[in-house]
Design goal:
Elements: E1 4-8, E2 14-18, E3 24-28, E4 36-41, E5 47-52, E6 56-61, E7 66-71, E8 77-83, E9 86-91, E10 95-101, E11 112-119, E12 125-130, E13 136-141, E14 146-150, E15 155-160, E16 167-172, E17 178-183, E18 188-192, H1 193-196, E19 205-209, E20 214-218, E21 223-227, E22 232-237, E23 244-249, E24 254-259, E25 264-268, E26 274-278, E27 286-292, E28 297-302, E29 306-311, E30 317-322, E31 329-332, E32 338-342, E33 347-352, E34 357-363, E35 369-374, E36 380-385, E37 389-394, E38 400-405, E39 413-416, E40 422-426, E41 430-435, E42 441-446, E43 450-456, E44 462-468, E45 478-486
Antiparallel strand pairs: 1-2, 2-3, 4-5, 5-6, 6-7, 8-9, 9-10, 10-11, 12-13, 13-14, 14-15, 16-17, 17-18, 19-20, 20-21, 21-22, 23-24, 24-25, 25-26, 27-28, 28-29, 29-30, 31-32, 32-33, 33-34, 35-36, 36-37, 37-38, 39-40, 40-41, 41-42, 43-44, 44-45
Length: 489
Protein backbone atom coordinates (compact mmCIF):
# COMPACT_ATOMS: atom_id res chain seq x y z
CA UNK A 1 0.00 0.00 0.00
CA UNK A 2 3.05 2.26 -0.16
CA UNK A 3 3.20 3.06 3.54
CA UNK A 4 6.42 1.16 4.28
CA UNK A 5 9.91 0.89 2.81
CA UNK A 6 12.26 -1.98 3.63
CA UNK A 7 16.00 -1.44 3.26
CA UNK A 8 18.88 -3.90 3.50
CA UNK A 9 22.39 -2.85 4.48
CA UNK A 10 25.96 -4.02 4.02
CA UNK A 11 26.38 -5.00 7.64
CA UNK A 12 23.49 -7.46 7.51
CA UNK A 13 20.90 -5.10 9.03
CA UNK A 14 17.34 -4.61 7.76
CA UNK A 15 15.21 -1.54 8.48
CA UNK A 16 11.44 -1.16 8.10
CA UNK A 17 10.83 2.54 7.50
CA UNK A 18 7.89 4.90 7.28
CA UNK A 19 7.68 5.90 3.61
CA UNK A 20 6.77 9.49 4.50
CA UNK A 21 9.38 10.24 7.16
CA UNK A 22 11.91 7.47 6.31
CA UNK A 23 12.32 6.90 10.03
CA UNK A 24 12.93 3.27 11.08
CA UNK A 25 9.91 1.55 12.65
CA UNK A 26 11.59 -1.83 13.15
CA UNK A 27 15.26 -2.79 13.21
CA UNK A 28 16.72 -6.26 12.59
CA UNK A 29 20.39 -5.78 13.36
CA UNK A 30 21.55 -9.30 12.57
CA UNK A 31 19.18 -10.27 9.79
CA UNK A 32 22.07 -11.80 7.81
CA UNK A 33 25.63 -12.56 8.79
CA UNK A 34 26.94 -10.17 6.16
CA UNK A 35 25.49 -7.99 3.43
CA UNK A 36 21.77 -7.96 2.68
CA UNK A 37 21.67 -8.31 -1.11
CA UNK A 38 17.95 -7.92 -1.87
CA UNK A 39 14.52 -7.39 -0.28
CA UNK A 40 11.03 -7.93 -1.70
CA UNK A 41 7.46 -7.79 -0.37
CA UNK A 42 5.09 -10.70 -0.96
CA UNK A 43 1.81 -10.14 -2.83
CA UNK A 44 -0.20 -9.65 0.39
CA UNK A 45 2.07 -6.96 1.82
CA UNK A 46 2.05 -8.77 5.19
CA UNK A 47 5.47 -10.36 4.75
CA UNK A 48 8.70 -9.55 3.00
CA UNK A 49 11.77 -11.55 2.04
CA UNK A 50 15.47 -10.87 2.18
CA UNK A 51 18.51 -12.52 0.65
CA UNK A 52 22.08 -12.24 1.88
CA UNK A 53 25.70 -12.95 1.10
CA UNK A 54 25.46 -15.71 3.74
CA UNK A 55 23.47 -17.68 1.13
CA UNK A 56 20.14 -17.58 2.97
CA UNK A 57 16.69 -16.26 2.16
CA UNK A 58 14.48 -15.19 5.07
CA UNK A 59 10.77 -14.42 5.40
CA UNK A 60 9.80 -11.65 7.88
CA UNK A 61 6.54 -10.24 9.17
CA UNK A 62 6.04 -6.50 9.54
CA UNK A 63 6.92 -6.65 13.23
CA UNK A 64 10.45 -7.59 12.25
CA UNK A 65 10.03 -11.21 13.33
CA UNK A 66 11.59 -14.03 11.36
CA UNK A 67 8.88 -16.36 10.02
CA UNK A 68 10.96 -18.76 7.93
CA UNK A 69 14.53 -19.18 6.76
CA UNK A 70 16.22 -21.36 4.16
CA UNK A 71 19.81 -21.89 3.09
CA UNK A 72 19.33 -21.07 -0.57
CA UNK A 73 22.74 -21.03 -2.27
CA UNK A 74 26.23 -22.45 -1.78
CA UNK A 75 27.73 -19.00 -1.57
CA UNK A 76 25.89 -15.70 -1.67
CA UNK A 77 22.19 -15.37 -2.44
CA UNK A 78 22.42 -12.30 -4.66
CA UNK A 79 18.84 -11.60 -5.68
CA UNK A 80 15.27 -12.46 -4.78
CA UNK A 81 11.97 -11.80 -6.54
CA UNK A 82 8.37 -12.66 -5.68
CA UNK A 83 5.20 -13.46 -7.61
CA UNK A 84 2.03 -14.84 -5.97
CA UNK A 85 3.26 -17.88 -3.99
CA UNK A 86 6.50 -18.30 -5.94
CA UNK A 87 9.95 -16.97 -5.11
CA UNK A 88 12.96 -16.96 -7.42
CA UNK A 89 16.52 -16.48 -6.19
CA UNK A 90 19.89 -16.23 -7.94
CA UNK A 91 23.28 -16.87 -6.41
CA UNK A 92 27.05 -16.80 -6.73
CA UNK A 93 26.86 -20.58 -7.36
CA UNK A 94 25.50 -19.74 -10.87
CA UNK A 95 22.15 -21.33 -10.02
CA UNK A 96 18.59 -20.04 -10.10
CA UNK A 97 16.21 -21.57 -7.53
CA UNK A 98 12.45 -21.49 -7.70
CA UNK A 99 10.68 -21.72 -4.32
CA UNK A 100 7.07 -22.25 -3.26
CA UNK A 101 5.83 -20.15 -0.37
CA UNK A 102 2.86 -20.72 1.91
CA UNK A 103 2.07 -17.66 4.09
CA UNK A 104 1.98 -18.31 7.84
CA UNK A 105 2.48 -16.33 11.01
CA UNK A 106 4.38 -19.07 12.79
CA UNK A 107 8.03 -20.00 12.57
CA UNK A 108 7.99 -22.98 10.23
CA UNK A 109 10.91 -23.61 7.91
CA UNK A 110 8.84 -25.89 5.68
CA UNK A 111 6.80 -22.91 4.46
CA UNK A 112 9.55 -22.12 1.93
CA UNK A 113 10.00 -25.22 -0.22
CA UNK A 114 12.46 -25.67 -3.06
CA UNK A 115 10.42 -26.42 -6.20
CA UNK A 116 13.04 -26.39 -8.95
CA UNK A 117 16.69 -25.62 -9.69
CA UNK A 118 17.56 -23.99 -12.99
CA UNK A 119 21.17 -24.57 -14.07
CA UNK A 120 22.76 -22.96 -17.12
CA UNK A 121 24.64 -19.80 -16.17
CA UNK A 122 28.43 -19.92 -16.02
CA UNK A 123 28.88 -17.20 -13.39
CA UNK A 124 27.10 -15.26 -10.62
CA UNK A 125 23.37 -14.67 -11.16
CA UNK A 126 22.79 -11.03 -10.20
CA UNK A 127 19.14 -10.60 -11.16
CA UNK A 128 16.05 -12.75 -11.67
CA UNK A 129 12.36 -12.14 -12.21
CA UNK A 130 9.10 -14.08 -12.54
CA UNK A 131 6.60 -13.32 -15.31
CA UNK A 132 3.15 -12.10 -14.13
CA UNK A 133 1.54 -15.41 -15.16
CA UNK A 134 4.22 -17.36 -13.27
CA UNK A 135 5.10 -19.48 -16.32
CA UNK A 136 8.50 -17.98 -17.04
CA UNK A 137 11.63 -16.94 -15.16
CA UNK A 138 14.32 -14.66 -16.51
CA UNK A 139 17.83 -14.46 -15.09
CA UNK A 140 21.13 -12.77 -15.86
CA UNK A 141 24.44 -11.78 -14.33
CA UNK A 142 28.18 -11.86 -14.78
CA UNK A 143 28.13 -14.13 -17.86
CA UNK A 144 26.16 -11.41 -19.73
CA UNK A 145 23.56 -13.93 -20.87
CA UNK A 146 19.84 -13.36 -20.38
CA UNK A 147 18.06 -16.68 -20.00
CA UNK A 148 14.32 -17.17 -20.31
CA UNK A 149 13.20 -20.35 -18.54
CA UNK A 150 9.99 -22.30 -18.97
CA UNK A 151 9.13 -23.03 -15.34
CA UNK A 152 7.23 -26.29 -15.90
CA UNK A 153 10.03 -28.32 -17.58
CA UNK A 154 12.78 -26.12 -16.09
CA UNK A 155 14.39 -25.54 -19.49
CA UNK A 156 15.99 -22.54 -21.17
CA UNK A 157 13.75 -21.54 -24.07
CA UNK A 158 15.62 -18.38 -25.06
CA UNK A 159 19.19 -17.22 -24.58
CA UNK A 160 20.16 -13.64 -25.39
CA UNK A 161 23.55 -11.97 -25.29
CA UNK A 162 23.05 -8.36 -26.22
CA UNK A 163 24.65 -6.60 -23.24
CA UNK A 164 28.41 -6.11 -23.46
CA UNK A 165 28.89 -6.15 -19.68
CA UNK A 166 27.34 -7.63 -16.54
CA UNK A 167 23.54 -7.70 -16.32
CA UNK A 168 22.32 -5.97 -13.15
CA UNK A 169 18.55 -5.85 -13.42
CA UNK A 170 15.77 -7.80 -15.14
CA UNK A 171 12.08 -6.93 -14.72
CA UNK A 172 8.88 -8.04 -16.42
CA UNK A 173 6.33 -5.33 -17.17
CA UNK A 174 3.15 -5.81 -15.07
CA UNK A 175 1.20 -6.68 -18.24
CA UNK A 176 3.71 -9.43 -19.03
CA UNK A 177 4.26 -8.26 -22.59
CA UNK A 178 7.68 -6.70 -22.09
CA UNK A 179 10.95 -7.51 -20.36
CA UNK A 180 13.44 -4.82 -19.33
CA UNK A 181 17.16 -5.49 -18.93
CA UNK A 182 19.88 -3.16 -17.64
CA UNK A 183 23.60 -3.71 -17.32
CA UNK A 184 26.98 -2.27 -16.51
CA UNK A 185 27.23 -1.25 -20.18
CA UNK A 186 24.81 1.58 -19.25
CA UNK A 187 22.19 0.26 -21.66
CA UNK A 188 18.53 -0.54 -20.97
CA UNK A 189 16.95 -2.93 -23.46
CA UNK A 190 13.21 -3.54 -23.90
CA UNK A 191 12.23 -6.99 -25.18
CA UNK A 192 8.92 -8.28 -26.52
CA UNK A 193 8.21 -11.36 -24.39
CA UNK A 194 6.24 -13.18 -27.11
CA UNK A 195 9.35 -13.09 -29.31
CA UNK A 196 11.56 -14.41 -26.51
CA UNK A 197 9.43 -17.35 -25.41
CA UNK A 198 9.28 -18.89 -28.86
CA UNK A 199 11.60 -21.89 -28.69
CA UNK A 200 14.66 -20.94 -30.69
CA UNK A 201 17.94 -22.76 -31.27
CA UNK A 202 20.99 -21.22 -29.68
CA UNK A 203 24.65 -22.11 -30.04
CA UNK A 204 27.90 -21.34 -31.85
CA UNK A 205 27.49 -23.60 -34.87
CA UNK A 206 24.55 -24.69 -37.04
CA UNK A 207 24.29 -27.25 -39.85
CA UNK A 208 21.33 -28.71 -41.72
CA UNK A 209 21.56 -32.48 -41.85
CA UNK A 210 19.98 -35.18 -44.02
CA UNK A 211 17.06 -35.27 -46.43
CA UNK A 212 14.64 -34.15 -43.69
CA UNK A 213 16.74 -31.04 -43.01
CA UNK A 214 17.06 -31.45 -39.27
CA UNK A 215 18.96 -28.46 -37.88
CA UNK A 216 21.92 -29.46 -35.72
CA UNK A 217 23.08 -26.73 -33.34
CA UNK A 218 26.12 -26.88 -31.08
CA UNK A 219 27.69 -24.72 -28.39
CA UNK A 220 30.95 -25.36 -26.52
CA UNK A 221 29.55 -28.28 -24.54
CA UNK A 222 26.10 -29.12 -25.90
CA UNK A 223 24.41 -30.10 -29.13
CA UNK A 224 20.73 -30.14 -30.02
CA UNK A 225 18.88 -31.52 -33.04
CA UNK A 226 15.86 -29.42 -34.01
CA UNK A 227 12.89 -30.45 -36.11
CA UNK A 228 12.81 -27.95 -38.97
CA UNK A 229 9.11 -28.53 -39.60
CA UNK A 230 7.85 -27.39 -36.17
CA UNK A 231 10.96 -25.75 -34.65
CA UNK A 232 10.90 -28.13 -31.70
CA UNK A 233 14.01 -29.76 -30.21
CA UNK A 234 14.24 -33.51 -30.88
CA UNK A 235 17.20 -34.49 -28.73
CA UNK A 236 19.91 -32.81 -26.70
CA UNK A 237 23.37 -34.25 -25.96
CA UNK A 238 25.49 -32.79 -23.16
CA UNK A 239 28.09 -35.55 -22.66
CA UNK A 240 31.13 -34.54 -24.72
CA UNK A 241 34.85 -35.37 -24.40
CA UNK A 242 36.04 -31.78 -24.86
CA UNK A 243 35.02 -28.36 -26.16
CA UNK A 244 33.09 -28.52 -29.44
CA UNK A 245 34.91 -26.45 -32.08
CA UNK A 246 32.86 -27.24 -35.19
CA UNK A 247 30.14 -29.21 -36.99
CA UNK A 248 29.93 -31.02 -40.31
CA UNK A 249 26.92 -32.73 -41.88
CA UNK A 250 25.84 -34.53 -45.04
CA UNK A 251 22.64 -35.58 -46.78
CA UNK A 252 22.90 -39.16 -45.50
CA UNK A 253 21.42 -38.26 -42.10
CA UNK A 254 24.75 -38.22 -40.31
CA UNK A 255 26.71 -35.35 -38.82
CA UNK A 256 29.97 -34.89 -36.95
CA UNK A 257 31.13 -32.86 -33.97
CA UNK A 258 34.74 -31.67 -33.94
CA UNK A 259 36.59 -31.34 -30.64
CA UNK A 260 39.48 -29.32 -29.30
CA UNK A 261 41.21 -32.45 -27.98
CA UNK A 262 41.58 -33.94 -31.49
CA UNK A 263 38.60 -36.30 -31.46
CA UNK A 264 35.58 -36.32 -33.75
CA UNK A 265 32.23 -38.03 -33.22
CA UNK A 266 29.80 -39.25 -35.86
CA UNK A 267 26.09 -39.07 -34.98
CA UNK A 268 22.76 -40.18 -36.37
CA UNK A 269 21.06 -37.02 -37.57
CA UNK A 270 17.54 -38.25 -36.85
CA UNK A 271 17.79 -39.45 -33.26
CA UNK A 272 21.15 -38.12 -32.03
CA UNK A 273 22.57 -41.58 -31.35
CA UNK A 274 26.37 -41.77 -31.31
CA UNK A 275 27.59 -43.90 -34.21
CA UNK A 276 31.34 -43.75 -33.77
CA UNK A 277 34.23 -41.83 -32.25
CA UNK A 278 37.25 -41.22 -34.49
CA UNK A 279 40.84 -40.18 -33.90
CA UNK A 280 42.97 -39.61 -30.82
CA UNK A 281 44.74 -36.80 -29.00
CA UNK A 282 47.97 -37.02 -31.01
CA UNK A 283 47.53 -34.22 -33.54
CA UNK A 284 45.83 -31.45 -31.58
CA UNK A 285 42.52 -29.72 -32.14
CA UNK A 286 40.36 -30.47 -35.17
CA UNK A 287 40.16 -27.35 -37.35
CA UNK A 288 38.44 -28.69 -40.47
CA UNK A 289 36.50 -31.76 -41.58
CA UNK A 290 34.22 -32.96 -44.35
CA UNK A 291 32.25 -36.00 -45.49
CA UNK A 292 32.96 -37.73 -48.81
CA UNK A 293 31.76 -40.83 -50.68
CA UNK A 294 28.10 -40.28 -49.71
CA UNK A 295 28.97 -40.11 -46.04
CA UNK A 296 31.09 -43.27 -46.01
CA UNK A 297 34.38 -41.37 -45.67
CA UNK A 298 35.30 -38.63 -43.21
CA UNK A 299 38.34 -36.39 -43.69
CA UNK A 300 39.76 -34.53 -40.70
CA UNK A 301 42.30 -31.67 -40.58
CA UNK A 302 44.29 -31.06 -37.39
CA UNK A 303 46.18 -28.32 -35.62
CA UNK A 304 49.57 -29.87 -36.41
CA UNK A 305 48.74 -30.09 -40.14
CA UNK A 306 47.92 -33.80 -40.18
CA UNK A 307 45.00 -34.72 -42.45
CA UNK A 308 43.41 -38.10 -41.71
CA UNK A 309 40.95 -40.07 -43.83
CA UNK A 310 38.60 -42.43 -41.94
CA UNK A 311 36.13 -45.10 -42.98
CA UNK A 312 32.93 -44.10 -41.16
CA UNK A 313 31.51 -47.61 -41.10
CA UNK A 314 34.48 -49.33 -39.48
CA UNK A 315 36.23 -46.35 -37.89
CA UNK A 316 39.45 -47.47 -39.61
CA UNK A 317 42.12 -44.89 -40.47
CA UNK A 318 42.50 -45.41 -44.22
CA UNK A 319 45.17 -42.82 -45.05
CA UNK A 320 46.81 -39.67 -43.82
CA UNK A 321 48.98 -36.87 -45.14
CA UNK A 322 51.00 -34.10 -43.52
CA UNK A 323 50.68 -30.42 -44.46
CA UNK A 324 52.81 -27.56 -43.20
CA UNK A 325 51.02 -25.57 -40.54
CA UNK A 326 47.42 -25.87 -39.44
CA UNK A 327 44.99 -27.65 -41.78
CA UNK A 328 42.67 -24.71 -41.27
CA UNK A 329 39.87 -25.07 -43.85
CA UNK A 330 39.04 -27.83 -46.34
CA UNK A 331 36.84 -28.57 -49.34
CA UNK A 332 36.64 -31.41 -51.86
CA UNK A 333 35.88 -31.18 -55.58
CA UNK A 334 32.64 -32.66 -56.93
CA UNK A 335 34.45 -35.70 -58.37
CA UNK A 336 36.21 -36.21 -55.02
CA UNK A 337 39.61 -36.45 -56.62
CA UNK A 338 41.13 -33.32 -55.12
CA UNK A 339 41.25 -31.98 -51.59
CA UNK A 340 41.67 -28.23 -51.13
CA UNK A 341 43.28 -27.04 -47.90
CA UNK A 342 43.10 -23.38 -46.89
CA UNK A 343 45.90 -22.02 -44.71
CA UNK A 344 46.27 -19.16 -42.29
CA UNK A 345 49.08 -17.87 -44.50
CA UNK A 346 46.57 -17.23 -47.30
CA UNK A 347 47.79 -20.23 -49.30
CA UNK A 348 45.45 -22.75 -50.91
CA UNK A 349 46.91 -26.24 -51.24
CA UNK A 350 45.64 -28.75 -53.81
CA UNK A 351 46.12 -32.42 -52.87
CA UNK A 352 45.55 -35.47 -55.09
CA UNK A 353 43.51 -37.93 -53.06
CA UNK A 354 44.52 -40.98 -55.13
CA UNK A 355 48.26 -40.42 -54.58
CA UNK A 356 48.08 -38.32 -51.36
CA UNK A 357 50.52 -35.88 -52.95
CA UNK A 358 50.54 -32.10 -52.90
CA UNK A 359 49.89 -31.08 -56.50
CA UNK A 360 49.88 -27.29 -56.24
CA UNK A 361 50.01 -24.33 -53.84
CA UNK A 362 48.25 -21.08 -54.72
CA UNK A 363 48.42 -17.71 -53.00
CA UNK A 364 44.66 -17.33 -52.61
CA UNK A 365 44.31 -14.41 -50.18
CA UNK A 366 46.38 -11.62 -48.66
CA UNK A 367 45.49 -12.96 -45.23
CA UNK A 368 43.93 -16.07 -43.72
CA UNK A 369 41.74 -18.38 -45.80
CA UNK A 370 38.65 -18.30 -43.59
CA UNK A 371 36.31 -20.57 -45.54
CA UNK A 372 36.05 -22.81 -48.62
CA UNK A 373 33.01 -24.11 -50.50
CA UNK A 374 32.67 -26.39 -53.53
CA UNK A 375 29.99 -26.01 -56.19
CA UNK A 376 27.40 -28.83 -56.00
CA UNK A 377 27.58 -29.72 -59.72
CA UNK A 378 30.35 -27.76 -61.44
CA UNK A 379 34.14 -27.60 -61.19
CA UNK A 380 34.10 -24.44 -59.10
CA UNK A 381 35.59 -23.66 -55.71
CA UNK A 382 34.88 -20.50 -53.69
CA UNK A 383 37.23 -19.12 -51.05
CA UNK A 384 36.79 -16.35 -48.47
CA UNK A 385 39.58 -14.52 -46.71
CA UNK A 386 40.50 -12.06 -44.02
CA UNK A 387 41.35 -9.63 -46.84
CA UNK A 388 37.60 -9.11 -47.40
CA UNK A 389 37.61 -10.84 -50.81
CA UNK A 390 35.58 -13.76 -52.19
CA UNK A 391 37.32 -15.64 -55.00
CA UNK A 392 36.07 -18.35 -57.36
CA UNK A 393 38.48 -20.92 -58.79
CA UNK A 394 38.34 -23.60 -61.43
CA UNK A 395 38.66 -26.68 -59.23
CA UNK A 396 40.12 -28.71 -62.10
CA UNK A 397 42.85 -26.33 -63.25
CA UNK A 398 43.09 -24.24 -60.03
CA UNK A 399 42.88 -21.08 -62.16
CA UNK A 400 41.25 -17.95 -60.74
CA UNK A 401 37.95 -17.21 -62.49
CA UNK A 402 36.75 -14.11 -60.59
CA UNK A 403 37.14 -12.00 -57.45
CA UNK A 404 34.42 -10.15 -55.53
CA UNK A 405 35.25 -7.35 -53.10
CA UNK A 406 32.97 -7.44 -50.07
CA UNK A 407 33.78 -3.91 -48.95
CA UNK A 408 34.61 -5.16 -45.43
CA UNK A 409 37.82 -6.19 -43.73
CA UNK A 410 37.02 -9.92 -43.75
CA UNK A 411 34.63 -12.56 -45.08
CA UNK A 412 34.30 -15.40 -42.62
CA UNK A 413 31.89 -17.82 -44.32
CA UNK A 414 30.62 -18.75 -47.77
CA UNK A 415 28.30 -21.33 -49.29
CA UNK A 416 26.85 -22.15 -52.67
CA UNK A 417 23.07 -22.33 -52.80
CA UNK A 418 21.90 -25.95 -53.32
CA UNK A 419 21.11 -25.18 -56.98
CA UNK A 420 24.59 -23.69 -57.43
CA UNK A 421 23.34 -20.43 -58.95
CA UNK A 422 24.43 -18.19 -56.11
CA UNK A 423 27.26 -17.78 -53.62
CA UNK A 424 26.28 -16.42 -50.22
CA UNK A 425 28.92 -14.83 -48.00
CA UNK A 426 28.78 -13.54 -44.44
CA UNK A 427 30.86 -10.87 -42.77
CA UNK A 428 30.45 -7.81 -40.57
CA UNK A 429 26.67 -7.44 -40.14
CA UNK A 430 26.04 -8.29 -43.79
CA UNK A 431 24.94 -11.25 -45.89
CA UNK A 432 25.79 -10.85 -49.56
CA UNK A 433 24.50 -12.93 -52.45
CA UNK A 434 26.61 -13.18 -55.62
CA UNK A 435 25.99 -14.74 -59.00
CA UNK A 436 28.21 -17.81 -59.32
CA UNK A 437 28.35 -17.25 -63.08
CA UNK A 438 29.29 -13.56 -63.27
CA UNK A 439 30.41 -12.66 -59.75
CA UNK A 440 28.00 -9.75 -59.68
CA UNK A 441 26.30 -8.82 -56.42
CA UNK A 442 22.64 -9.89 -56.52
CA UNK A 443 21.54 -8.95 -53.02
CA UNK A 444 22.99 -7.51 -49.84
CA UNK A 445 21.17 -7.76 -46.52
CA UNK A 446 22.06 -6.10 -43.22
CA UNK A 447 21.85 -8.29 -40.12
CA UNK A 448 22.24 -7.68 -36.39
CA UNK A 449 25.45 -9.68 -36.00
CA UNK A 450 28.79 -10.52 -37.56
CA UNK A 451 28.07 -13.73 -39.46
CA UNK A 452 30.52 -16.57 -38.78
CA UNK A 453 28.72 -19.70 -39.97
CA UNK A 454 25.92 -20.34 -42.46
CA UNK A 455 24.14 -23.44 -43.71
CA UNK A 456 21.44 -24.04 -46.34
CA UNK A 457 18.72 -26.62 -45.91
CA UNK A 458 18.78 -29.44 -48.48
CA UNK A 459 15.86 -27.91 -50.40
CA UNK A 460 17.41 -24.44 -50.27
CA UNK A 461 14.35 -22.91 -48.63
CA UNK A 462 16.03 -22.02 -45.33
CA UNK A 463 19.33 -20.44 -44.34
CA UNK A 464 20.69 -20.78 -40.80
CA UNK A 465 23.19 -18.24 -39.46
CA UNK A 466 25.40 -18.20 -36.39
CA UNK A 467 27.54 -15.25 -35.45
CA UNK A 468 28.78 -12.59 -33.08
CA UNK A 469 26.97 -9.54 -31.77
CA UNK A 470 29.86 -7.07 -31.74
CA UNK A 471 32.02 -5.64 -34.47
CA UNK A 472 35.52 -7.02 -34.63
CA UNK A 473 37.62 -9.84 -35.93
CA UNK A 474 36.33 -13.26 -36.98
CA UNK A 475 37.16 -14.47 -33.45
CA UNK A 476 34.76 -12.12 -31.65
CA UNK A 477 32.53 -13.68 -28.95
CA UNK A 478 29.52 -15.51 -30.31
CA UNK A 479 25.85 -14.64 -29.94
CA UNK A 480 24.04 -17.77 -28.75
CA UNK A 481 20.92 -17.27 -30.86
CA UNK A 482 20.82 -19.01 -34.26
CA UNK A 483 18.92 -17.03 -36.89
CA UNK A 484 16.93 -18.99 -39.49
CA UNK A 485 15.66 -17.22 -42.62
CA UNK A 486 13.27 -18.29 -45.34
CA UNK A 487 15.25 -17.78 -48.54
CA UNK A 488 12.10 -16.58 -50.33
CA UNK A 489 12.26 -13.52 -48.06
Amino acid sequence: DGTLIVTGEKGGQIRIRNSQTLRPIERMNEAHRDQVTAVAFDSTGKHFFSSGSDGSIVCWNLNGEQVAKRKAHAGAALDIAFRENKIVSGGSDSLVHLWEYEPTDSTNETTIKLAKTLAGHSDHVLSSSLSPNGKYVTSGGLDRNIRIWDVEPGETISLIRRHTSHIRCLKFHPNGRYLFSAGDDKVVNVWVVDDLIKRQPHGKFAKYCGSQDQLVVASDDELTIWNSANSEPIVRVVDHPAQIVGLQACQQDVFATLYRNGLTRIWNGQNGQLIRELGDHTHGAVYAALFADNGATFIVGHQDGMIQIFDVGSGELKNQMQTKGVAYRMAIDREEKKLFVGKRTGDLEVWQLDTLELAQTIKAHAGEVLNLAAHPSKNLLASAGSDGVVRVWDSESAELKMSMESGTSWVSCIAFTPDGNRIVSGNEHTITCWSSETGKEVLSCAIDRCVHHLSFSHDGQRLALAGAIRDGSPRTAYSPLIRVFETSD
